[in-house]
Amino acid sequence: xxxxxxxxxxxxxxxxxxxxxxxxxxxxxxxxxxxxxxxxxxxxxxxxxxxxxxxxxxxxxxxxxxxxxxxxxxxxxxxxxxxxxxxxxxxxxxxxxxxxxxxxxxxxxxxxxxxxxxxxxxxxxxxxxxxxxxxxxxxxxxxxxxxxxxxxxxxxxxxxxxxxxxxxxxxxxxxxxxxxxxxxxxxxxxxxxxxxxxxxxxxxxxxxxxxxxxxxxxxxxxxxxxxxxxxxxxxxxxxxxxxxxxxxxxxxxxxxxxxxxxxxxxxxxxxxxxxxxxxxxxxxxxxxxxxxxxxxxxxxxxxxxxxxxxxxxxxxxxxxxxxxxxxxxxxxxxxxxxxxxxxxxxxxxxxxxxxxxxxxxxxxxxxxxxxxxxxxxxxxxxxxxxxxxxxxxxxxxxxxxxxxxxxxxxxxxxxx
Length: 416
Fold this sequence. Notes:
With 416 residues, the chain is mainly alpha-helical. The protein is built from 15 helices and 2 strands.
């Protein structure tokens, strides 16, 4: 994920720590519902700060929503919310923290627990104070603050979907791959349904490779997916005062954008590309951050295969990252409808019908192979193809030709 859970906390440019402490999201006491059914990660999920085991205490007093929730999101509102998130990203440069938000809501999943929501995962539980105060989630209240106006505007949108929509949109808007997302996630209804603390990764465990595997295997993720998701650290910065990791500032972060300071993993830390892997491999710039869970990607034999590949081939990284991010975003989720909703391409469209000459036979007589070939040749001569429908201005002409040929075939057949 773009930001570490605990190893790197990100404060959006538009908010200061002081303002966050005094002005937390004021989520509505109820949610209007309408039931319409028509990542990292390693660093994104840190639990402990180097040298301490609990996050800075925030004077907060909100408990999220314990009243009725929506069973599932409405496609039209999902599409509109995505456009609003794009606008938000253009003005706040909050890509890293929004990626981290989606990862942390999903990253509590335990594949060994079948019951929902005890199994954790992408269920919107991170909106409740009890989970927000987990050490790994320090600073994520800022992401909720940013998304509050969008949630208020689109009441028929679940938190679980909003978190994942924001995360995937942030990756795409930063120049990353398009994530094959689906929506329709159901929210948990109260803080008693939040997972226990301790399910997210640390930044500097004694045995980084074993720790990453313990955490991500529990989620059902593979070595390839661990490395691919780690590549999201191409986005974001770590802040020493919040995480215990990173420099107070570097030549890449002292001027922002947004609130200055912190240490980034990459030079262009708001651009999603494969520079994370290149920079870790080269280790030539002391102003770039390399955590123990980053360095291990080029030291562990299995991880190294993928890390080397992604350092050399950005296309391969984008492909594997998109698949891993989509998988992560679905972990533990309960969907309504069960198959989920796809919004990116608008209403579902029927695939173009393939051309089959046999469909143009006269009455019940099947055309000969020779006649089928002639019809196909005529069809393709005016711009058609087996996989592409004809342009509308040719349709009448080709139908006339086919009709005439069919009649001639019938007459010739009757004459025998």
